[in-house]
Amino acid sequence: MGKINGKNHLLETNFLLERFLIYREVFSEHFKTMKVIERGEALRYETYSRLADNYTVNVHQFVRMCNKYLEKYNLENSSLADSLNQYLMEVISAINCLDFDKNLIDHRQLEKAKEKIRSTELQFMSTIGNLAK
């Protein structure tokens, strides 16, 4: 993968990174909300199912934004796209820690998912950092 060329490309890459950091926080808030629901401190209508639906909507919004960036700069088969896809796969699979039928969280699975997400976050940030060099 080459350098970022052009002012617009640099600005849009910075925007992508900014959105990545914002969505990273959004996803971590979903994990915190899981614990609030588990403790019974959430509003009555806030359930794991609603939380998962909202989480999925946020993931899809972020994916659409990332895909537009990758397509615009022809980066679909780049290391950036690979690291981003790996991150998104971990984010998507993190919701599997919820058992909707029993209304439970598998805490061990949640912690493993968060570790994998963190690892892929670092890989993505490293990859996007190399793009700017």
What number is the mean pLDDT? 91
Q: Give the helix level as a range of percent.
A: over 70%
Spatial separation of the terminal alpha carbons: 10 Å
Q: Which geometry do the CA atoms define? A: elongated
Write the layout of secondary structure elements.
Elements: H1 7-38, H2 48-72, H3 79-93, E1 98-99, E2 104-105, H4 107-131
Antiparallel strand pairs: 1-2
Helix pairs in contact: 1-2, 2-3, 3-4
Short description:
This protein is mostly helical and 133 residues long. The protein has helices at residues 7-38, 48-72, 79-93, 107-131; strands spanning 98-99, 104-105.
Main attributes?
133 residues; mainly alpha; two-stranded antiparallel ribbon; 4 helices; 2 strands; 73% helix; 3% strand; elongated
